[in-house]
Design brief:
heterodimer; A: mainly beta; 7-stranded mixed sheet; 4-stranded antiparallel sheet; B: mainly beta; 6-stranded mixed sheet
Chain lengths: ~120, ~110
């Protein structure tokens, strides 16, 4: 059974960089059958795709966030990570890491989500 | 890249059928048979219910079905049950991006 677990600070100051890591168990980030993705959900609002990475390191980001986002993968630790720079209160959200089918772009496994609040 | 359009809310009585629409454009829903649907209960992570327009993952009830016509995809839930009350999100590949719908709150009366 594949499991994903987000970790990182729950509180980030405005203008700083949000950093989260997703640890994958029961599966491998080196699998060529999947992308690894970050998705967020502001409180009381809908889902927003942030971006995804392939094991090779190739990435695609939401154009609205592209200038601030970096997603990286560490195959030796079976982890992938998110960095979002210059955060504001609008970046307050539950952040999910997820596994995405390479062929179908469907998200079959999700982490439990972690709330990140941007506040001074 | 704009969000897909879903109704904010739908409702139905137990045993009835409801349909949730998801309208995109020729750049996303209309171009790819890569529409998926997710169910989200309060405080929980979303769950995949339908993928590639009409396929059901193992373990998902056959009361859930999906379809697509042109730029609009649809999720139909038949034989509504109390546990179906949740938020539902559509999602489409929009080469090379991914876009979600705004979400629909399903109330079982």
């Amino acid at each position: 059974q594949v499991q994903l677990q987000e970790s990182g600070p729950g509180l980030v100051k405005p203008s700083e960089t949000l950093s989260l890591t997703c640890t994958v168990s029961g599966g491998s980030v080196s699998s060529g059958s999947y992308y690894w993705s970050w998705i967020r959900q502001p409180p009381g609002k809908g889902l927003e795709w942030i971006g995804y990475i392939y094991y090779s390191g190739s990435t695609n980001y939401n154009p609205s966030l592209k200038s601030r986002v970096t997603i990286s993968v560490d195959t030796s630790k079976n982890q992938f990570s998110l960095k979002l720079s210059s955060v504001t209160a609008a970046d307050t959200a539950v952040y999910y890491c997820a596994r995405v089918s390479y062929s179908g772009y469907n998200i079959d496994y999700w982490g439990q989500g972690t709330l990140v609040t941007v506040s001074s | 890249q704009s969000a897909l359009t879903q109704p904010a809310s739908v409702s139905g009585s137990p045993g009835q059928s409801i349909t949730i629409s998801c309208t995109g454009t020729s750049s996303d829903v209309g171009s790819y048979n890569l529409v998926s649907w997710y169910q989200q209960h309060p405080g929980k992570a979303p769950k995949l219910m339908i993928y590639e327009v009409s396929k059901r993952p193992s373990g998902v009830s056959n009361r859930f079905s999906g379809s697509k016509s042109g730029n609009t995809a649809s999720l139909t839930i038949s034989g509504l049950q109390a546990e179906d009350e949740a938020d539902y999100y559509c999602c489409s590949y929009a080469g090379p991006y991914v876009v979600f719908g705004g979400g629909t709150k399903l109330t079982v009366l």
